[in-house]
Amino acid sequence: MQLFERVPETETAALRAETLLLPPASKRFVVLNRTASCLWSSLVVPCSELELIEAILAAFRVEERERQRVHAEVRTALDELVRLGCARSIER
Questions:
Q1: Cα–Cα dist 38/48, whole Å
Q2: Dihedral sign from CA coordinates of 56, 41, 44, 11
């Protein structure tokens, strides 16, 4: 099973509804919006993509019919967090 987790060396700061990240291999901050901040908060423990989707659906009271859109947005956010070196994929 593929899980995602934070890269522990990523520095984090909360800023109202947003989150600032400083990836370990970069000198540039990344600003997460409210939805991506929720996803980041969930990654405090390793999570599957499905668990992250469920967290977003629950946190934002998204209707079930919007599940495909949420799935695509979570996938995009995860890909970007991994690309930036803030999160990584692990197998269990």
A1: 14
A2: positive
Closest CA to 39 of 90, 11, 5, 1: 5
pLDDT digits (tens, 9 = 90+) for 24-62: 988 899 999 999 999 999 999 999 999 999 999 889 888
Instruction: Decide if 73 contacts 8 (C-beta within 8 A).
Output: no
Say how many domains are in the chain: 1
In which domain, by residue range, is 22 found? 2-89
Residue among 1, 11, 5, 84 at smallest CA distance from 52:
5
CATH code of 10's domain: 3.90.930
Per-residue pLDDT at 64 exceeds 90 = no
For residue 24, the SS3 value is coil
Q: What are the structure tokens assigned to 55, written together? A: 């967290």
| Threshold 0.85, pTM exceeds | yes
Phi and psi at residue 15, in whole multiples of 5°?
-140, 95
